[in-house]
Amino acid sequence: MATATLGGGCFWCLEAVYQRLNGVNQVTSGYAGGQTDNPHYRSVTTGRTGHAEVVRIDYDPSVIDFETLLNVFFTIHDPTTADRQGADIGPQYRSIILWEDEDQLATANAVIERLTREGAYTDPIVTQVQPLEAFYPGEDYHQDYYRHNASAPYCQMVIMPKLEKAEARFGDRLRR
After folding, report:
1. N or C: more exposed end of the chain, with fewer CB within 10 A?
2. For this structure, is 13 an active site residue?
3. Antiparallel, parallel or unpaired: β 84-85 and 2-8
4. Per-residue pLDDT reduced to its tens digit, 47-62
5. Could you give all domains of the chain from N- to C-terminal order, each with its CATH number?
6. Selected catalytic residue, list 6, 10, 54, 76
7. Are 9 and 86 in contact (CB under 8 A)?
8. Cα–Cα distances in Å, from 134 out to 39, 40, 102, 144?
9. pTM to 2 decimals?
10. Are 53 and 93 in contact (CB under 8 A)?
């Protein structure tokens, strides 16, 4: 088993997509990348804790590798906007890869370099790549959000298009 920690806007969006990938055993929404211990949603939303909304992905590397997780990541969010994803604005919504070992660091840098070389985006990629120092699980009501609230307007307008992008590009890797 291995873990990956990624932030690309609201954690509900990433959680909904990664939960559907073959080889992903668990996805936990939470906070990382900041300077305060034991942050909670109200403190993170102020933008002053330094934490980003992230997902911690527990996965089986014999089924899905870290590079594929990153390819999904760069498909379902905009890595060219600093401190923002759509209407979600603030440093807690930044694009960030929190690496756990040197292999993850090398893979993250290689994927970003490849996407840049290929001209995948008109604007430069601003995704931060930094070591994971601590992960703090989010509150219970943030876990499995899409599964519990799929008909809510936010889920329909924001999360559903990300699920559709994942389906279009990675449909062969999704659970049915």
Report:
1. C
2. no
3. unpaired
4. 999 999 999 999 999 9
5. 2-173 (3.30.1060.10)
6. 10
7. yes
8. 11, 14, 17, 21
9. 0.95
10. yes
Residue 97: which of 114, 111, 84 has the closest Cα? 111
Instruction: Identify the residue whose tokens are 């989010």.
Output: 138
How far apart are alpha carbons 17 and 11 in whole angstroms?
10
SS (H, E, C) the chain: CEEEEEEECCHHHHHHHHCCECCEEEEEEEEECCCCCCCCHHHHCCCCCCCEEEEEEEECCCCCCHHHHHHHHHHHCCCCCCCEECCEECHHHCEEEEECCHHHHHHHHHHHHHHHHHCCCCCCCCCEEEECCCEEECCHHHCCHHHHHCCCHHHHHHHHHHHHHHHHHHHHHECC
CA–chain centroid gap for 103, Å, is 18
Question: Would you state the structure tokens that stand for residue 79, as one six-digit string?
Answer: 């890595």
pLDDT in tens, 18-46: 999 999 999 999 999 999 999 999 999 99
Q: In the numeric block, which tokens belong to residue 89?
A: 């604005």
Query: Using CA atoms in the order 162, 163, 169, 172, what is the torsion angle rounded to 10 degrees?
Result: 160
Decide if pLDDT at 78 tops 90: yes
